[in-house]
Input
Amino acid sequence: MESQEKLDSRRALQSRRIKTATKNPDRVRERRESLINAAIAVFIEKGFHNATVRDIGRAANMTQGTIYNYVSSKDDILYMVCDRIVAEYNELSSTWFATGSSPSTTTRPAERSTPHMTPWDAFAPQCARSRR
Output
């Protein structure tokens, strides 16, 4: 399996650059993780088009002004959510191929523990548009 550095560098090449007004990279990473987690919850609850940046901010315990220090738009947040989902899918796929296990044997316990739809189910159409 590839090292984390190789995966991170490949991901950086494939990712679009999202502008930030904050200079501290650790702080940016931390705040963006909070935004992604909050956005996933809000998008699942309300859908992307009905969710607002204010809704995401409330869920992440951030003001709108703070959010715009780390992203430029709700589309940037969607892109980060989609990027995470694709990265997690790729990681799972690599594991499946490396171990020779079937995706169905790997995902069934997860399916039983989460009766609601997954982030991938909720965002697949938006992610496809966002990554173009």
